[in-house]
């Protein structure tokens, strides 16, 4: 993929998909700043790649925390070529009349406002380099919503709109902005979409896996493959795209 000379920031780096994205970048020789509120899962990778991986504990819902994480990355590695916004939170399926404003705002702040904050912080570096790739993880649920995921679907829809808005705004600077829509993926998050009191294992099999035409849950590796491709120069004519990695769920 030729990403070995790139510096990538990965948010949600300690999570199911984020960690595999980080690992794939490291295996290819890239330098990575992995940001997460919970960094315990990154300890092993940090000891395997001490020169290449910078782990930053930060809260993406907090403006100052984001600014300082991006600054630290630039100071450590001298450039920022890729921003992969992988962090996100789920919503337990809830009827709209029972969704509190606090929950709505929490979901929006991490799934969409954080994408604004990280993008705003990296763009000055990318503009100076006249080169950059931003990849936002949205969700196929924007096209195929499930009942009760109202705030989650709205938050990911906003991220897709922001992706397109930034793609046109930043094209003159050779900064590409794309989104990936994962289908139901085999991570901790999947069970969190289950209605409160519901059986997570049963929902995973009977609702989620069976909804994928190719018959399997999406792996974090499948998402990471696409992130690396969009980061690389192989995708140099792709911007403003929304790529489904969903086993056909979006059809
Ligand atoms: N798992 C699925 O079925 C699925 C489907 C479609 C889209 N997605 C999206 O894929 C992305 C990755 O999800 P995942 O399945 O790896 O989930 P995950 O829960 O395993 O990982 C999410 C990570 O984001 C981090 N995070 C949450 N809030 C944060 C904050 N305020 N500051 C810093 N870090 C924070 C968490 O600590 C966690 O490590 C998310 O954006 C999710 O919405 C997931």
TrEMBL record:
Family: Belongs to the short-chain dehydrogenases/reductases (SDR) family.
InterPro entries: NAD(P)-bd_dom_sf, Sc_DH/Rdtase_CS, SDR_fam
Matches recorded under SUPFAM superfamilies: NAD(P)-binding Rossmann-fold domains
Keyword tRNA processing set for record: no
Highest classification ranks of the organism: Bacteria, Bacillati, Bacillota, Bacilli, Bacillales
Keyword terms: Oxidoreductase
Organism this protein belongs to: Planococcus notacanthi
UniProt-listed NCBIfam families: PRK07231.1
PROSITE patterns reported for this sequence: ADH_SHORT (PS00061)
Protein name listed in UniProt: SDR family oxidoreductase
């Amino acid at each position: 993929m030729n990403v070995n000379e790139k510096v990538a920031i990965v948010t949600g780096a300690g999570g199911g998909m984020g960690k595999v994205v980080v690992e794939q970048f490291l295996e290819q020789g890239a330098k990575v700043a992995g940001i997460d509120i919970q960094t315990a899962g990154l300890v092993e990778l940090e000891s395997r790649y001490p020169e290449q991986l910078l782990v930053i504990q930060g809260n993406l819902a907090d403006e100052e925390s984001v600014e300082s994480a991006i600054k630290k990355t630039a100071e450590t590695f001298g450039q920022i070529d890729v921003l992969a916004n992988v962090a996100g939170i789920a919503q337990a399926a809830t009827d709209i009349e029972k969704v509190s404003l606090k929950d709505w705002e929490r979901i929006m702040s991490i799934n969409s406002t954080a994408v604004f904050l990280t993008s705003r912080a990296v763009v000055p570096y990318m503009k100076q380099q006249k080169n950059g790739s931003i990849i936002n993880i949205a969700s196929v649920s924007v096209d195929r919503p499930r009942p009760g995921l109202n705030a989650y679907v709205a938050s990911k829809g906003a991220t897709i709109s922001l992706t397109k808005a930034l793609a046109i705004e930043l094209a003159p600077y050779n900064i590409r902005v794309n989104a990936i829509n994962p289908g139901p993926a085999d991570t901790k998050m999947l069970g969190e979409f289950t209605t409160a009191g519901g059986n997570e294992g049963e929902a995973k099999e009977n609702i989620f896996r069976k909804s994928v035409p190719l018959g399997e849950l999406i792996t974090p590796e499948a998402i990471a493959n696409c992130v690396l491709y969009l980061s690389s120069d192989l995708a140099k004519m792709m911007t403003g795209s929304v790529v489904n990695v969903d086993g056909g769920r979006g059809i």
